[in-house]
Amino acid sequence: MRRLRALLRTPLGVCAVVLLLLVLALAVAAPLVWGAQATAVDTDAIQQGPSGAHLLGTDALGRDLFARTLVATRLSIGLALLAMLIGVTVGTLLGTAPAVLPRRAGRVIVAVVNIAVAFPGLLLALFFAVVFGVGTTGAVLAIGFATAPGFARVAQTLSASVAGRDYVAAARIAGVGRLRVLVRHVLPNIAEPLVVNATIGAGAALLSFAGLSFLGIGVQAPSYDWGRLLGDGLNRIYTNPAAALGPGVAVVVAGLAFNLCGETIAAALGHRTPLRRLLSRTSAPAAPVPAGADDTDPVLRVEGLSVRFPTAVGWAEPVRGVTFTLGAGEAVGVVGESGSGKSLTALAAARLIERPGVVAADRLEFAGRPLLSAPERELRTLLGTSLAMVFQDPTTSFNPTRRIGRQLAEVAQEHQGLGRRGALARAVERLAQVRVPAPAKRAHQYPHEFSGGMRQRAMIGMGLMGTPRLIIADEPTTALDVTVQRQVLRLLDQVRRDTAAAVLLISHDIAVVTQTCDRVLVMYAGRIVEDLPAAELTERARHPYTRALLAVVPDLAADRDRPLGVIAGRPPEPTALPAGCAFAQRCRYATDECRSADPQLTPVGDDHRLACWHPVTDSGADTTDARISVEGSR
Amino acid sequence: MSTLAFEDVRVRYGTHRSGLTAVDGVELTVPSGSVVGLVGESGSGKSTLARAAVGLAPVTGGRVLLDGTDVRRLPRGRRPVQLVFQDPYSSLDPRMTVGESIAEALPRRAFGGRQAFRDRKARHGEVARLLELVGLDAGRSGALPGELSGGQRQRIALARALAARPEVVIADEITSALDVSVQGSVLNLVRELQRELGLTMLFISHNLAVVRYVSDYVAVLYLGRIVEVGPAERLLADPQHPYTRELVEAAPSAHGSLLAAPDSPVADAEPGDPHRPPAGCRFHPRCPVGPLVEEARSICTTVDPATVAASREHRAACHFAAAVGDTDTPVPNSVVRTGFPSARSDTLE
Ligand code: SF4
Ligand code: SF4
């Protein structure tokens, strides 16, 4: 509803609604106001042209055409809506019937609908008009039935997609009957798009109706609608063009009103973020730092990084002042729950945050170059050759229509000026390096012929086409099975050893990170709350959140007779962060100090940074006991 | 009390030529009142098996039995097997309040001592009771799914499954869409409910640690076939089948090591393709002790070990499974066929 209201503030939305209301008001009021005038025969003023008294002139009986056009609104709109109603009802019945009927009967209906859809609507209307006989009733039925197949198809597609949902399956398992499923689950969930379609369809029905009447097989005298007026007027197009023009314009305007309204609603339902007003801000690095790249420099230096997004209730800041460095050959893991900002941090480092997101940082340098202020072209080459990305979903990382080998080769052609052949040879070489079996053959295959794990390997291979100094892997194994996950993690590790590239591994799985990285950054609500060597994580973690994370994940040695640890509550929304420590609500060590002052990330020893007022000091075996409570029940 | 048994169950999709046998001859018993964990990778057919048990997937061979009765022959309106889905975001109708969703699953007719909920007030009371059972405030019944967190939704889904008064609950990857911080509380709830209500449960997950935590027995599925079954602790502590061993080794834990592993010709083998299952032992192209590593073991490429597997409580479908050792007590019939002979208490140790 809010979306609809937002759309009504756009000029087009307002126009559409006002126009439609006007047409509908006219349909109701016109016969009352101009009814008498429209039927008043005036033999003194037969077949006149437009004049002050008769704006559109008069007809053969001297009746005022302007008044008749206005009065005809009711019949034209009414009949069109009636036809539409028939079309929608029949269509929805036909479209949803296959979901309820036995398989066989359902198939027959689907086949019939498929055939009917293949005929042009107007042809069907003419056919039905002949079947039902000439006249108003016949025309309404004809147009209704002619539009039904189209609706049936829409309803069919929509209900099939809803029927595939788990909640429908759940209802069926629970013993809910097919008809009940249709009424309670399917219809409510397809109603919105159907209404949109019906609105647009009403405009089309209006036109078809006018067409039938114009041809003389619609409304019959003495009744009249726009189509008939148009037909009558056309006979005198040379003597009085206005007589045809008036009803013609009326048809167009009314049709437009319905169509625009439908589109408006469709747009409101389709696009979820009409936030244009907020988009125009751009980023400004606080202090651009001159570059001085040499090999002792960290590969990635991030200081005070923040990422902001506009939302309906103001700016959200899902990454708030993140600081870390990543040296050559180092593997750093970032862990946290969803919404902790871990992925956004990585994306910002790869310059992949798109507008409306805004990235700001005191310092954000890759290979000694400032990412926020260096010239665009220079950065493209730098990132293109020295940065590799591996994403979570291997199905979307490649273009499905092009061969894997070519997609890899493209990188070398673009950034290293290799020829087509040379680039392809290198692609095959790299595929072999990431242990894709039969690389020469595989290079000629399309992405869908690769399994998930293979695709991740190819993705890593793509990163190796240049000379990567940093590999950012964002949940690279989350979609994979454990055995394949191990293969991919090993490969990443091997590549890191071979090329001395740094690895930034984002994962929700603290165990994966502990085992594959040198250092672990724990993120919570957009901040790094703890940074320590991976080897010390289980023994020396001191932040209550890190401890809790370690405690909630069962491993193969977990005590089966004790309940698992839980972290009660939820992380705060990025638009409503508390004044003090963001974890305070869920932290059992929280004091008033925590709730009022935000702890900063500060060194607490060699290689160990922490943001907490009351670090946990006792070593190991804590955390599970007192934090057993039921999540979310309060 | 009720036992769910899969008897030589086969599920085949599609036509003769381009079909896919997702589940191929599965024999598995879920003994009354116990939890059997089902693990396997994607494409192993574990979700298909679950869907077959509740009638969402076609059983093209064999039978699924509930206390000896084919589930397809149960009286109409009786739904003793309930399924909880993986994704709590798509398993609740976004337009229905959670109370309505739960109420919908309440039995309308009385069955064998089970109460029916016909009038509004009785339903209302029952919904409130169920909400409290899963640790939610009874006042939340008017909420729409969109107002709840993932963990809360999964609780609602559990409540809905329980509303139907099931004898068997199948949980299909119910924690894999949840954040780790929430996963623990859902698992605790599942265990509490199972023990309190004495539910028979088939718990499906790809996460071994999670399965081990809730299950009494574990069954390992590979390309539509069960390759190993046994008491949970014993099976995971001492896996017999090479595939199970791989799974256990690959499970990330804070203590083991994922990166240190011997190089082997099958270390980077691709997972099996259910459209073209290999002949003989389906695991042989990936098996670290199989024919690709030890040449003498060519039998693996031709003879399906499932057919010659020994009959013991802990059994593995492998020609060269490690000796089961002192726990190896052969039982007269294939246990997977007749159910687990030992009571669940002795496997909990
Ligand atoms: S600062 Fe306070 S509330 Fe925050 S984690 Fe530390 S003890 Fe808990
Ligand atoms: S039967 Fe052979 S190939 Fe199969 S798991 Fe056993 S050893 Fe490996």
Largest sheet composition of chain B: 7 strands, mixed
Strand proportion of chain B, as a percent range, falls in 15-25%
Let me know the number of strands of chain B.
11
Number of helices of chain B: 10
List the uncertain runs of chain A.
271-294, 620-634
CATH topology of the largest domain in chain A: Rossmann fold
Task: List cofactors, ions and other ligands.
Answer: iron/sulfur cluster
Radius of gyration of chain A: 34 Å
The outline of chain A comes out as elongated
CATH architecture call of the largest domain in chain A: 3-Layer(aba) Sandwich
- Look at the structure and give the mean pLDDT of chain A: 82
| Largest sheet entry of chain A | 8 strands, mixed
Oligomeric state of the chains in view:
heterodimer
User: Taking all residues together, what is the mean pLDDT of chain B?
Assistant: 81
Secondary structure tally, helices of chain A: 21
Largest interface: A-B, 68 and 78 residues
Strand order of the largest sheet of chain B: 6-7-8-3-9-10-11
InterPro entries (chain A): AAA+_ATPase, ABC_Ni/Peptide_Import, ABC_transporter-like_ATP-bd, ABC_transporter-like_CS, MetI-like, MetI-like_sf, Oligopep_ABC_C, P-loop_NTPase
Transmembrane segments (chain A): 75-101, 108-132, 194-221, 241-269
Domain ABC transporter (chain A): 300-550
Family (chain A): Belongs to the binding-protein-dependent transport system permease family. Belongs to the ABC transporter superfamily.
List keywords for this structure.
heterodimer, A: 634 residues, MetI-like fold, Rossmann fold, 2 domains, 12% strand, disordered C terminus, B: 349 residues, alpha/beta, seven-stranded mixed sheet, four-stranded antiparallel sheet, 10 helices, 11 strands, 26% helix, nucleotide-binding (chain B), ATP hydrolysis activity (chain B), ATP binding (chain B)
